[in-house]
Amino acid sequence: ADSSAVLSVLKVDLCLDDNHKEHYTSYFHAAASDALIVRRGEPFRLRIHFDRDYSPSKDAISFILSVSDDTEARPGRGTFSVLVPHDGIDYLGDPLEWGSGIETHEGQTLTVLIKPPANCPVTQWKMDIDTKLLGDGSRSYPLPLPIYVLFNPWCPEDQVYLEDRDQRKEYVLNDTTLISVGSHNNMSQLPWKLGQFERDILECSLMVLGTVGKVPPAFRGDPVRVARALSAAVNVNDNDNGILWGKWSLTNDYSGGVAPNNWTGSMEILQKYYKTNAAIKYAQCWVYGGVLATISRSLGIPTRVITCFESAHDCQGSLTIDLVSELKYNKEGIWNFHVWNELWMQRPDLGVGQQGTFDGWQVVDSTPQEPSDGKSQLGPAPVSAVKNGEIQIAYDCGFVFAEVNADVLTWRDDGPNQPLKLIHRDTQSVGQKISTKAVKSWEREDITDNYKDPENSKEERSTMYKALKKSGKALSRYYLNDTFKDIEFDMELKSDLKMGENFSVVLKVSNKSESTAHLAKGQIACDTVHYTGRGAVKVKAMDFDLKLKPKSSEYVRMEVLFKEYFDKLFSHAAFQITAAAKIKDTDIDYYAKDNLLLRKPDIKFKFGDAGIVVQKELDVIVRLENPLPIPLHKGLFTVEGPGIKTPLKLKASSTSVAEITVGGIAAATFKYTPPYAGRGTLLAKFNAKELEDVSGYKHYEVAKQS
């Protein structure tokens, strides 16, 4: 080539293997299809082949970068020009600016490093390589493929920097998690395939940020803006073309979509949404939590899925939940459990004076509840602000504070023109066993202490009163007269009850008085409820009349049979037990309630005898024992795991016939080829006409080929 002509780019090697290894992005499906995926704040390498030798004294090279979907990008606005210096790569410039340098130069080949700033917009970028001759003349070579730039929890200058290596592995790179569900006294772990590296997931996540979340290109590097936008974009509620359509059907009618309990992970949802651009039906809180975790992990923000048992839904901002006995129609309520997310980031937006007080885990919740700034969105709310009752801190700390701390007040309605009478105050039941998957282990980690001081401790009560003061609601109905302490109510429920069994509900009523006998007259009732605490269906109730001698206890026992509850169950198999009583010759009412959950059977996995080796097909059997006193029909297993492109649907057969007899085994076999060595997780769901929403998972090691 003519040495007096402008340098011309023949081809660019994106050094994919090196870059993806150094940026922890080689897991992405998109990485296999030649896209360059890098994390901000860390340099990436390009090898450029020119049509003649590069001469530092007369050739100038610069990289022109702009956001792919930024229609208004022009020089000086949204476009960055990075000139390659002639003097090596000792210094790639300020961490918050684009930088570049020459790593090696051999004749016509130049290896350069380019460093996106640590606050770079997280999005798809396009790049041109401009070459100029010092005298005159220039050329431009557009890079044919986009460059994806992600958040970087490995980079100390990034707002989402997470120091601990194991936590980065769990909260950024792990593609399967556990979500605690059930009730505080009988919880189970729901396995969920996040699949943040699978086909189309990264592209979908970036698209959602721009077109649904409408975050302008310049702000896509701010994790606070990104998190808030995602919490609104994951639900369909603001006519923003969001991802998930919520439905809490009390009649179990999910026609026209997939019942929330039937999803095994986020992958199917996001791939389908990316293809059709139409909201996916249907979701409940754990589905919203799973999908938000997939998107934010794929973008590179450390994220975990949180479950709060006995979670309060405070509609009035009063920080108390008010239930009127006998009136089941009020919207406020206590959910058996509620699922949200925590995203890890610093909060410089909360002002300089705070010195990192509110950095760290932030609550972000995409389940539509109460509007915030006119949209169905929640967060980021710093967990540390929630713990300290700082309910005015942005965003939505008051709502989260109530979810984990509200006092539950039960009022009796004595009819028109009568004041409501406060008959029960519970300061302890809301916000129990706040849980997430433990780091690098398949266990539950309890994080309740991050959200609050121990219940009824001096600190916890003073935080509550501080928050009540700040909420500015006139608490006109001051708390209960606690003087009558003679009678105590205790609900005694067994925690490990299995689906299919009969069970008893026991109420212990004690008279603490040294000298006075009391008469207690009341009713104990068992209802099935939805996990949100709504839609109670009566199963059984029993009246009681107790004569209580001084310093004695009496028991009320009610037996509930399988045939009495079976056709009234919702999919989480949850019951609400309530007891109410009046004490004769006093103005005292007693009221107690608790939840009870039936445990479903386990799904067992069995691998073929040859051992689990990468890229070698093996047989896997999934099986489950029928725990019900009746046969099961139309059993179906759904299986997901690494390398399974769309969830497998497997008809369950028993050894003999289409029905699975009482105590019989439902089983299915499939062929499975592990795609990579190391750790893997298979997860399964089982649904039959008579028994739905049973989950199981198996964690295993895959050997390298010998």
From TrEMBL:
<feature type="active site">
    <location>
        <position position="285"/>
    </location>
</feature>
<dbReference type="InterPro" id="IPR008958">
    <property type="entry name" value="Transglutaminase_C"/>
</dbReference>
<feature type="binding site">
    <location>
        <position position="407"/>
    </location>
    <ligand>
        <name>Ca(2+)</name>
    </ligand>
</feature>
<comment type="similarity">
    <text>Belongs to the transglutaminase superfamily. Transglutaminase family.</text>
</comment>
<dbReference type="Pfam" id="PF00927">
    <property type="entry name" value="Transglut_C"/>
</dbReference>
<dbReference type="InterPro" id="IPR002931">
    <property type="entry name" value="Transglutaminase-like"/>
</dbReference>
<keyword id="KW-0106">Calcium</keyword>
<feature type="active site">
    <location>
        <position position="365"/>
    </location>
</feature>
<feature type="active site">
    <location>
        <position position="338"/>
    </location>
</feature>
<dbReference type="Pfam" id="PF01841">
    <property type="entry name" value="Transglut_core"/>
</dbReference>
<dbReference type="InterPro" id="IPR001102">
    <property type="entry name" value="Transglutaminase_N"/>
</dbReference>
<dbReference type="GO" id="GO:0003810">
    <property type="term" value="F:protein-glutamine gamma-glutamyltransferase activity"/>
</dbReference>
<dbReference type="InterPro" id="IPR036985">
    <property type="entry name" value="Transglutaminase-like_sf"/>
</dbReference>
<keyword id="KW-0479">Metal-binding</keyword>
<dbReference type="GO" id="GO:0046872">
    <property type="term" value="F:metal ion binding"/>
</dbReference>
<feature type="binding site">
    <location>
        <position position="405"/>
    </location>
    <ligand>
        <name>Ca(2+)</name>
    </ligand>
</feature>
<dbReference type="InterPro" id="IPR023608">
    <property type="entry name" value="Transglutaminase_animal"/>
</dbReference>
<dbReference type="Pfam" id="PF00868">
    <property type="entry name" value="Transglut_N"/>
</dbReference>
<dbReference type="InterPro" id="IPR050779">
    <property type="entry name" value="Transglutaminase"/>
</dbReference>
<feature type="domain" description="Transglutaminase-like">
    <location>
        <begin position="277"/>
        <end position="368"/>
    </location>
</feature>
<dbReference type="InterPro" id="IPR013783">
    <property type="entry name" value="Ig-like_fold"/>
</dbReference>
<dbReference type="InterPro" id="IPR038765">
    <property type="entry name" value="Papain-like_cys_pep_sf"/>
</dbReference>
<protein>
    <recommendedName>
        <fullName>Transglutaminase-like domain-containing protein</fullName>
    </recommendedName>
</protein>
<feature type="binding site">
    <location>
        <position position="460"/>
    </location>
    <ligand>
        <name>Ca(2+)</name>
    </ligand>
</feature>
<dbReference type="InterPro" id="IPR036238">
    <property type="entry name" value="Transglutaminase_C_sf"/>
</dbReference>
<dbReference type="InterPro" id="IPR014756">
    <property type="entry name" value="Ig_E-set"/>
</dbReference>
<feature type="binding site">
    <location>
        <position position="455"/>
    </location>
    <ligand>
        <name>Ca(2+)</name>
    </ligand>
</feature>
